[in-house]
Structures are given as C-alpha cells and as structure tokens.
Amino acid sequence: MPRRPGPQIKRASDKENKDGAGTRSDTVKVAVTPPAPTNEQWSTNKQGGNVLQWLAQKTDATAPAPTSRGAVEYLNQAKKPKSYAAAAALSGAKAKPSATAEKPAEKAVDQLAAKVPRSAPAKEPVKTGKRDAAKAASKELTKVVLKDTVKAVPSKVTPKEAPKSEAQPPAAAAAEFSAVPKPRSKAAPEAPPEPKESDGTAGNLAQLAPAKAMGALTGATKATDELVKTAELPTSATTHLLSKPAPRSSASSLANNVRPEVPPPRRVRGRRRDDDRAVRAQQRIEKEQESAQRRHAEAMRTDAEYKQRFETMQEMQTAMQISQAEFFDKYRRQETLLLNHVVTERLDMPVILELIEQHDVVFVCTDTGSGKSTGVPKALLELSSDTKVVSTQPRRTATVAISNRVASLRRERVGEDVGYWIRGDKKGDEQTRLWYMTSYTLLLRILENPAELPFTHIVLDEFHERQPDLEVTVALLRLALLNKTSHFKLVLMSATLNTEDWEEYFAGLRVATYKQSEPEHPIHDYFLEETCTLLGTDYHAPPQLVSRGVVDKGTVEKHFYLAQNLIFFLNSCSNPVHSILVFLPGRAQVETMSMWLRTQLSHRVDAVPWHSAVNLSEIEAAMRRHIPGRQKVYLATDIAEVSITLPDVVYVIDLVLVKRPKISKESPSSIQYPPLVTQWISRGSVAQRRGRIGRVQQGFYFCLFPAVQITDLPTYSQPPIENSRIDELSLHCLQVVSNPVAIFSLCHGQPLVGVIASSMNMLTQLGCILDAKDPLSAGERIDEIYNRQNESWSRMIMAAAQAEVMTDIPEYHCTFIGRILQLIPVSPQPGMLVFFGFLTGLESLMILAAAVTSSLSPFSINANEGRQRHFNVARAMEETENAMREFCCGLRSDIVAVMKAALLFRIEQQRHGDSMETVRHWCLQKYLSYDKLMAIVDLENHIKYELAEFMPFRSIVEAEKLLEQLDKLASMVAVMTNVAFVAQSLEVTSENNSYTNSKEMALGIFSDLTAVPDIHSPSCLRWQEGDVIIPVQLSLIFDKLLASFSTAIASPKQFWMSLLLFSQRVHYATFSDDEGTFHVFALSYGGKERYVEVDEITGYVVLEFRRKLSAICGVLRLTHANRLLYEDHINTLLSSYSLAPLQDLQREVITALVSIFNNLEDMTADEVEHDEDDLDLVSLLSFVLPTRTT
Fold first, then answer.
1. What are the Cα distances from residue 7, in Å, to 345, 352, 512, 513?
2. Are 16 and 489 a contacting pair, CB within 8 Å?
3. Residue 464 lies in a domain
4. How far apart are CA 837 and CA 849, in angstroms?
5. 481 within domain boundaries
6. Which of 982, 1059, 1062, 1034 is nearest to 817 (CA)?
7. Which CATH number goes with the domain that contains 381?
8. Which residues pair with 1166 in a beta bridge?
9. Which terminus has fewer CB within 10 Å in the chain: N or C?
10. What keywords are assigned to this protein (predicted)?
11. Which of 516, 533, 565 is the last residue of a domain?
C-alpha cells in the first residue's frame, strides 16, 4: 500500500483575520508534504486519486457566487413605516442580484479538454438526396450480417451461385468489423469455417461471463440494435418462397418398376417436413444475404453518403471495442470484499485534536469516506470525561445510522454515552455525552437558551449543504464566540468547501483548516463522451448545456435512456456482488427507473429505491441483503450524497441532475410556491457523488455530462436559503430576537427580499406575531419567551444587525398562537388546525388533521398495481378515486378521506397487531400506502408529545371514538381546514379552460395565480364551475399552479362565513340605509383585501361567536400559565375572572358552529366592493384577560 502523506494544515491566528477595526492579517501555511506539481494532469487511465485532487484538476479557480443580502436590503427598505399590504409589495421588488459563478475562460476549457481523453467524434454524414435509401440499405445489411454470425446450418449455395467479386472495405477496417463476407472461391467447395480466436471485446466478455458474452456485446451496441430493429426484408421474395408448392414426384421414378417404399411413420414424416422447412428458410436467408451484399457493394461504389455512413459505423464499432477492452482490463483487477472487515477511518486524529484545542473554529476538509463523521466526534468524546459533544447531520437517516455506527464501535447500545435526537424521536438522557442531531434540532435547542449552551464541542458535518436552519445556527454560534457568552469549540466538516470565503466570515476568531490528500483506491472516470463510446452510442450533447438555465425534458429523457442502457451493460458483464448506485433528479425518476428494472430485469437485479420518504431501516436491510445471482442497484436522489458509506458499490451512474426549489425574483408566484426545478448540480456535488466509490475498493464513475463543459458548472451550489420559504424558521427565531430579519442579516447567505416580506406578512395575518407599535400587541405578548437571558441576546443580535443595515429595525411580539406553533413540528398553516382544535374542543381530531395536511396523501394508484398483468393508469386512477369516495363521509374533501383512512388503519393495527402482513394487505385492497399512513400516525403522536407539557388537553387515544367524532363533525373539520389554508383558495371559472369535457380552470381569490387540478394525483372530488377550492398542496409549473389534496365548497356563502368566524383579525363597520342595518367586514390574506356584506342578524351572530372564541383564548392563557394546578383550582381561578370552565365554553362554541352552518340559508353573506377606508372597528381573537373580580 502506498505511504500515506501527511495533512496540509492552514492556521489563521487573530492577527491574520480582518476584524471590524480593520486589522491586517498574514496567513501562515504549514504543509507536511510538498504540493503536487502544477503540471500534473488527470487521466482516466491513471490508477488512483482522490476527490480533492480530481476536483482541483477538473475545475478552475473561479470565485464562488456572491450570496444574497436580502435581509439587509429588506431592513433598509423597511426604514419608512409601511402597512402590511405595502410590505407584501416587496415581493415584487428587485433584490440585490447574486452573481453567478463566472464562466471559465477558453484557456481553462482547452486545458480540461487536454486532461480528459475522449473518443474521436464520428464524422458528419454528407447530406444528399439519397439519405433515406442509404439508411434503409444499411439497416437491412446489418440485420443480415448479424443473422449470418449466428446461423446453425451450413450454406448450401453452390460455387456457381456465388456472386462475383465486388468492391470490398479496406483491409484494416475489415479486420475489426467484417460487415461484408468475402466471396467464396469457385475452384473448390467451401470449407467449414475454422473457429477463430475472439477479438478483444468478445474475448474479455467470454472470459468474464462466457454465457453472457454475446448478449453483453450486442446489448451494448445501441447503434447496431437500432439498425436491426428497423431493417425490412423484401416482402415480395418472402411471400413467393413461402407460397411455393412442394415438388411432385418426377416421371422417371414412375417409369421404373420399383416397388414403392413403405411410408415412414407419422412422427417421422412430421420431422422431415420440419427439416425441409428449416432448409428452405436457410436457403432464403442465404439468397437475401447475397442480395444485400450486392446492394451494399453497389451503394459503396455509387453513393457517397452511404459510404460515409458505413465507414462512420465501422469507426464507432472499432471505438466501442477498444473502449470495452480497456474497461474489462480495469475491471479484471476488481476485488471482492467482506463488508464486515471494511475499515474506512484514515485521519490523523492527534493533529485534528491539537488544532481544535488551540483554535476557536476548525475546518476539517477531507475526502468522503475518510471517517470524519464517525471518527472526529468519537475522538472528542474519548478526549476527556468532561467533554459533551454534539454532531449534526442534514438528514434524519444519516443521523440515526451514524449514531448506531459509533455506538457499535464503542461496543455499547445507542442511548448510553452515544445517542441521537431528531424531531419525534430521541434516544439518550442527561448522561449521554455524544449527541447526533439533525441541524434543525440543534437550532431549536440553541434557541431555547442561547446563553447557556451545554456543549463543549459543536461539530457541524456536511457543512457544504448549508440548509437555511444551518445558516442561522452558524450565525448564532459565531455571535456567541465573538461576545464570549459561551465556551465551546466549533468544528465544520465537509469534503467540498470554500474555506477561504468562510475564514473571512469568522474574522476576529482563531481559525485553522485541516486538509488531507492521501492515495485512495482508483476511481476510473467516464464522462458522457467515453460512456457513449463504451455503449456504441452516437449521442452528442448540445453545446452550452449549463447556459440554457432550465434543463429541458428532452435532455432528461436522453440521459435517463443512457442510464438504462448502462445499467443493462454493467449487469451483463460484471459480478453481481458489485452494486450500482444511480443518482437521479427526483423521486418520480426513482420510481420510474425502479418500475423499469422490476419489469425488464427482475430476475437479474435487486432494485433499492432511496429518497426522502424511504425509511432508513429499508436501506440498512438492503445493504445487508444479498440475493445470489442478482445485482443490487441503488436508485437514489441527492439524499445519497452524504455520510452513509455503501461498501458494496463499485459503479456510480450520475445524471448530474437534481430537483430543487428555485425562486425567481421577477416571479411573485415562485416566491409564494417555490417550484421544484430540474437543474444541473455544482462541481462540488459532482465531487461528492464521485466520492461514494473508491472508499474501500476501486470504482467506476460514469458522469453523464460532457467533459469539455464540466467547467461551465457552478463551483458550489446556490445557498438553499435563497430559494426556500422561511415561515417556520422566522417563527422560531422570534424566541431570541424581536425581529427574525435581524438574524438573517448576520447570516453568510441570506433570503431574498420578497421571501422575507411574504413570510412576515403571512405570520402577521395568521396572528402569530404583532407589530410592537400595534396598540393591541402589549396585551397579546407572551412573556415567558422574553426572559432576562433572551432579552440580552435580543439586544446583542439587534445591535449587530444595526451595524449591518444602518437603520432602525422594527420589532414584533410573539402571540399565544405563535407560541403554540413554535412547539409543534409542522409549518404554520397546518399548525393553525391545532389551535382551532383547542377553540372547539376537538383537540385530538384536529391534531390528526394537522398531521394529515403536513404529510403526503397515502392514496396511490401504484399501491395495487400487481393485481393485473397489464397495468392501465387511467383505470387504476379511477378505481383509486372511487376508493377515496368511500372514506370522505359524504363530503368533497380529500383531507377528510385521508383522516378516516388513517383512523381505520389504526383500528386494523389494533385488530391485527402481531400480523403486519395482514395490515399491509388491507392497505393494498384500499389503494393505500402503508408507509405513508405510518408516517401520519407517527407525526400525530409527535405533535401530542410536544403539546403535553405546554397545556393539558383531552387526548382521545381510542381510534373508534375519534372515528365516531369524525363521522358527526366532518363538515366542521372541513370548515376549519378551509380557514387554515385560505391564502391558497381558488374560484373555479369556465374561462380559458384547457379541458374539453370539464370546466377546471380556477383563479386565486387572494392571489393573481391561475390553477388547474393535478390529474396525476388521485382525488375524491371533481371541480365544477362556481366551486371554491381549498388545496393543501400546490406545485408551480411555469406560470400555472397544479392543485391537489383539496376540499371543495359549492356555496361561496359557506366560504365567507367560515372566514368571518375564524379569521384572527377582521375590520368591520356598521351601516344603515333604507333597507335596514348591515355590516361590512374586511378580510386580508396574501396582501389582498376582500369585503363581505352581511345583514344585521348575521353580523350579530358573527360578532357574538367571535366573543366566545376570545373568552376561550383567555381561558387557554390562564390554563397554560397555571398548568401545574389541579383542575378544581384552575376552575376556581377562572371564576375569579368571570370565565366558565374550558370544556363548557368549548361545548357552546361547537354547538353554535353547527347551528350556524345548518341555518346558513337564512343568512346573508356576499362579497362586495368597498373603496372607502371607514372600517374602523376591529374584532380580534384576543388573549387579553378580562379584569379580575376577586
């Protein structure tokens, strides 16, 4: 094994950094090993190399793209007082543009082209008028040649029938690809062909897998297969030969007085007829071959285009054979490992520990698979008995897997010294000294008490992903280190990270960087050009793929097709124990590829889908599973880029694509609903994916992207915070600061101005926050989150942000509603359902509704696909929707249908607790996904767990009781769901509809968006003209929204009444005219206002109902503040405020609610236009306590 070189260490002391006072720094670099020569070149033939070397040679020195400064710009624009309607207009304002990575110079491209060997491109065919005729002749010839190579009966053609010598291809080309057999000699009969030695490709195939050699060779040549499939035999000759009658007995045999022979038995006569038919077929094939040879020779002599196309095919065939020979030569050295004996840790741990001890911030940049995720936290844990370490991962699956791995290395169980903590699951206690958490879980722990962090070392792994929560975490930790409020060491780890940019961000702190470049197992790179040559494909990528911006559907389909052919080729010629990892853009492509493998290669591969909805236990089981004769194929999204090592993977097929949210500053709709866009990944992500192999044995990396355009890819991915909604993150930041934008202004990457304005507007309209200048905010403020420590942190953050923006920063107060939503693991809109449950006494039922609306629909057309041989998507969709209608309680609501399905699922679990297969079979019959239903149940339990300490409530555990409650009050559940998601409401119109038999075009009520139903998602409702649709899920495709998981309201009056009853704040006024007294209410969502006019009685009913809700809000606040008291003491306390017990008030509210909607026909509620600003009265669901009487 080659000797391991030492690490490269870069130390940056205090005087090296540029702080706020403008001090100058000098950089000191200590390199244990000399740097590589500058003229070193990378070659796919070179044995070895690591990710850092590869990435440095593949990329230029382009500086990373400047990140967004949206928070600073938002605060600067907000200097003048603005209303929330005006603040919403900021979504259309232009933010400071974040420059993309500079396009590399032509010189860099030339250098890369020189470094990466490519096969010679095929010659362009000469365009003449005989293109079609030449192409048909070439196809026909190829089919004949392939048949000639596998014929079993020797030729019966006599020398007289042999054609005359024609023009032959050059000798050199004929040696490699003898497309036209040489004419047989007339002087002597044809000798049987001698077995000749196989050529390079066929020989390698035969040595590795003799039974599959010919199949692998023919399966890899796409160009030849296409010619064979489309070739046409001369139909006239075939018809003549098949219809020719059998020859009769000759006259000479009748003249002879010879006794006729006894006819053979029937079975012998049948066999002779079969033999004669085979001989005739062979003769027909030979004549067709000779005819094709003559046509080929004539075309080669007279048609220049045909000749050039034929020579191009020969060149492609030769190049393919050479490429496959090189591939087999490399693969011949492949090892077969025992996975239990794999050792991946290759770090110089004493050096890392010394750097951590001497510095505040340490960057650990090593190749993937070096063992940093397990080794560094474990070494810190064993450093001293007083250390308490937390290590973060971006995803839940990696968090649990690595904690299990470290615990097994220490020969202990998870939950002792080593534990994990993710939202909804925790293993460990106060004695646990090494916690593995998701980055969001760590942020929530920091926000609870930022002044007293209980950790001595904080390790942020896979730091290059830079999720929005990680940006905020780093900003808070940096502020704590600069102000010395806590004493801890910060370690940032990644395989691909621009450390120079981050060292400047940590100016004023002692910073060091540890980099290690050591020899690893060889990785053989095949870019798009080499991959096409290996498969014999003539596909050429169009120029400037990256500059086009959005990846078009045709490019995705071509790369998908190449990946399919490559899987087939690798499966045909490699050892089944060597697995394949395929990186696909998104979940849809993963499921499509998985279905294709199950259909085409079910007996040869073991397909393992891997995306965010797949349980970690399934991936771990797949890693341990080995089916003899079947090769594992992991089909993954970008979730497989980080942390988890797959030691059995030898091949990585990378489509270089990913599906991520993309916000356009010019498109307000993309700010509200960031669309998932297929886009090219960065060079850093390419290095991450390449690093999945070469960890424990040599590997092959197939990058389906042109080598000459690799430098066009951005150096690093755009920070996700610039393309994400920040509603939930903003709400959580209010625990430590009076304006979350102040924290965003301190982050390295910042959200866009429009996103900030939209999030603050939505939180205000839901009642989660109130402007500090609002006269009602003082009574609504929750004092428990504004303790002395958090107040000091808020002042510190605001002062730091003030220095950045040079303007006054507005302050906000978090309300009781906001505090409830901070605790539960759902976004604000589903969280409002939990609050409505407290108002109506339907706590358990509305917690289930929140879990349902936060999850994906469990109804799926694929759930029952195995029941019939020929799967019809349209019929399966219809059957699935019919099954949904059985669950919807007579309403047109997908949410109610899923809620009932989840409750029936729980009943089936209780009935067949020990038989999981029985429950799965029930799900299959009902077109339901078992995994998605389990996710809903788990989230429901998690919400109850988080609320248990906040406030006592009636938790109904029995699914039968909840089901009975749902059957009675399903319509009220639909009403409250409509209010929670009212900002997404749509009105169905018949204008400009794109469907012939239905009117399904809808316009946003509180937005300017156009929406259509997502016909690929099953639903129990059909849109009708005049309906109000409340979709839970919206996905943006270009300028249209696809709506799914919806509830339909046939009566607009019902829609407006639900908003008047449950909206957190409404403005209104009372007017009189000749017809009598009436009320006008103003409703504001999404920056738009709508006005509703009601009659006097209806207005009184609305205001009285809202007063009852406010009374319940006061009771909830008192109950929370005195939650440790017994119920009798709480009731006594409530009576001192002239308030009834909570359950009595809830019973009155739910009774009144049912009565209002049962008598809706007698009420008036119509939308009107109101231009005057005279609605000066406010109705607020207020938590202000009434005056205490005793």
1. 14, 10, 13, 10
2. no
3. yes
4. 10
5. yes
6. 1062
7. 3.40.50.300
8. 1093
9. N
10. ATP-binding, Helicase, Hydrolase, Nucleotide-binding
11. 516
| Residue 653 DSSP SS3 | strand
Find all residues with CB under 8 Å of 465, minimum gap 6, and list them: 394, 642, 720
Residue 939: inside a domain, yes or no? no
Q: How many residues does the chain have?
A: 1190
* Count of alpha carbons within 13 angstroms of residue 138, beta-carbon side: 23
Q: Which tokens in the block code for residue 870?
A: 């020929």
Given a contact cutoff of 8 angstroms between Cβ atoms, the answer to whether 451 and 793 are in contact is yes
> Which of 498, 516, 534 is the last residue before a domain boundary?
516
pLDDT per residue as tens digits for the range 851-904: 999 987 899 876 444 444 455 677 878 888 888 999 999 899 999 999 999 999
pTM of the model: 0.73
Domain holding 90, by residue range, is 70-101+722-823
Domain-embedded: residue 1159: yes
Burial label, 1171 (beta-carbon count in 10 A; 0-12, 13-18, 19+) = exposed
456, 387 in Cβ contact below 8 A? Answer: yes
CA distances from 1105 to 595, 1111, 1146 (A): 54, 10, 12
How far apart are the C-alpha atoms of 501 and 966, rounded to whole Å?
56
Q: Round to whole Å and give the CA distance between 938 and 242.
A: 69
The CA distance from 73 to 56, in Å, is: 35
Return d(Cα 583, Cα 692) in angstroms, integer. Answer: 11
Helix (H) / strand (E) element for 1154: namely helix 1142-1158
Mean pLDDT estimate for the chain: 76
Q: What is the structure's pLDDT at 1144?
A: 93
Alpha helices in 78-212 (DSSP H): 84-88, 106-115, 131-149, 171-176, 200-208
pLDDT band at 362 (very low <50, low <70, confident <90, very high): very high
Phi, psi for 691 (deg, rounded to 5): -70, -5
Domain count, the chain: 3
Q: Which residues contact 108 (CB under 8 A, 6 or more apart)?
A: 60, 711
Q: Which helix (H) or strand (E) holds 373?
A: helix 372-381
Give the chain's largest Cα–Cα span.
140
